Amino acid sequence: MLELSLGELIGTLTAAGLSPAHARPLWRHLHHELQWDLSPPAGFPPPLRRWIAANLGQGRRFSLTPPQEIARVASTDGLTSKFLLRLEDGETVETVLMGFRGRHTACISTQAGCAMGCLFCATGQMGFVRNLRAGEIVAQVRHAQSALRNAGSPALRNLVLMGMGEPLHNYEAVMTALDIISDPGGLNIGPARITLSTVGVVPGILRLAEERRPYRLAVSLHGASDEERSALVPVGRRWPLQELMAACRTYSARTGRHIFFEWTLIRGINDSTAQAARLAALLAGIPAHVNLIPLNPTGGYDGTAAAPAGAKAFQRVLLAEAGIPSTLRQRRGIDVAAGCGQLRVEKRPGSPR
Ligand code: SAH
Ligand code: SF4
After folding, report:
1. Catalytic site residue 118?
2. Which of 42, 84, 292, 334 has the fewest CB atoms within 10 Å of its CB?
3. What domain count does the chain have?
4. Does residue 256 sit in the same domain as residue 285?
5. 159 phi and psi, to 5 degrees?
6. What is the pLDDT of residues 159-186, one digit of tens each?
7. Distance between CA 268 and CA 134 in Å, rounded?
8. Is 165 a pocket residue for ligand 2 (Cβ < 6 Å)?
9. Ligand 1 near 262 CB (within 6 A)
10. What mean pLDDT do residues 202-231 have?
C-alpha cells in the first residue's frame, strides 16, 4: 500500500467507483498520521471504509505490513541511532537517524547489500542481495519519523539516500518513494531537503537531469584519476571520469543546481595535497561543494582515516586553487557502526549473492 503514489491511489479508487476526493483522507492516514492500523477511523466516508475492508489486509489486493524493528542502538555521541529493520521476506536493512540541535536527518537504504563493490564500504563488501521496493524505502522514513514523534522531538528535516545500496541502481523504486516522501500532504520532506548519493552511475545521473528531478545530488569520487579511483571504486572502469564529469556538467547545466562531491579520505591513499589539486582541476566549471569523509573502519578493508592536519591541508588546496568550498564530516555513530560505509547485515542462508 505504501508504494502507491498519490496519483496511483486516486486512479485505484476511481477505478473502483469511488470519488477522487476519497484519496486524501486515506493518504493522510497513511503518510501523515503514519498509521499501520487497517481499521479505518470513524470519520472516513462509508464508500472508502468499504473499499478498505475489501481490499486491504492479509491475502487481499493491498497489504500494509510494518517492517519489524529487530534492533535499535544509540551511539554514545548522543546524536545517532541505528535501526535494524526486518522486511516482509526476512531480509534486513539498516536506517540511521542523526540529530543535532533539534534538526534530524534520516539516512536510509535503497538496496539490501550493494553490487558496486567499493573496497572500503561494508555494504559493498557484503555483495548484492536485492533491490528494495518503493514501499520499503518509504517505510524506513516512516519508521524514523515515528521514532522522533514518540520521543516528542521535532519532525524529520532532512533525508539522505546514503545508507545501504546504490540508489541509481534501483531508479524506479527510488523515484516513486521520493515522490511519496516529498508530498506536502504526507511526510512532507521537501525535495530541497533530500539528497541522493550515487557512486557515479552515469545513465542515472543523465536521467535525473532529463526528468528534472528536484532532489539534491551527491556524487562519490574518492579519486581524481581513473587509475586511482578504480582501485577503490571498481565501477570507475565502467564509467570513466571523463564520462562521469561530462554527465555532472550536463546535470548542473540542465538543473541549475550545484553538486556535492564526496571523497572518503584514506591516509596515504587519497589524502595528499597533489590529489587535492587534481580534484580541483577535475571540478573546474562545475558548481561544486566537496564533502570530505574521514574513512570509517570496516572489517574488509585495512586503510585508516586521514590525519586531521592532512584533511585541513586538502581543504586549503581546494579553496586556494579553485575556490571550491568543502566540509569535513564529523565522525558520528562509529561506536555502533552507524557511520558512512559501515552498514551491513548478516546474510540469510539461501539469499542470493
Ligand atoms: N551508494 C551511494 C550511497 C551510499 S554510501 C554512494 O556510494 O554514493 C554514502 C557515502 O559513504 C559514499 O560517499 C561512500 O563512498 C561513503 N563511504 C563508504 N564507505 C565508507 C567508509 N568506510 N568510510 C567513510 N565513508 C564511506
Ligand atoms: Fe555501494 Fe555506495 Fe558502498 Fe560503493 S560506497 S559499495 S556504491 S553503498
Report:
1. no
2. 42
3. 2
4. yes
5. -135, 130
6. 999 999 999 999 999 999 999 999 999 9
7. 40
8. yes
9. yes
10. 98
